[in-house]
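Box 4.2: Ligand-aware structure prediction
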Amino acid sequence: MIIQAIRWKRAEDERLSVLKNGAIARVVVGKRSIVFVRVDGVLRALLDICPHQGRSFEGGWCDEGYIVCPFHRMHFDPVTGENKFGATSKVQVFPVEERESAVYVGIPYSTISLFGRKLW
Ligand code: FES
């Protein structure tokens, strides 16, 4: 049985706690580049890899709650990761917790267990 679980990783960037609505910031969390955006007061996190051609969202922006990739201007929902117009694959999104001490991102990992025993 494959179990999907998450590990909370601290995002070491002071910009996140003061990020304004519609603003985006790219931060390396663990070994992943993550794009943060605040929409309606809620901080969201997406993998910094556009599913269209695998490019970074660097230079992108937020338009009416969607992250816009600067290369071909596809719009992605930061909640679901879906393309606004239904084309291409979804961008990976992560849960975010704004704790008193810092911002944390839930990074998924898979583990395999058999009858309750963790194999790895
Ligand atoms: S590479 Fe992002 S929209 Fe094409």
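In the box above, the bound molecule is FE2/S2 (inorganic) cluster. Residues 50, 52-53, 55, 69, 71-72, 74 surround FE2/S2 (inorganic) cluster (CB under 6 Å).
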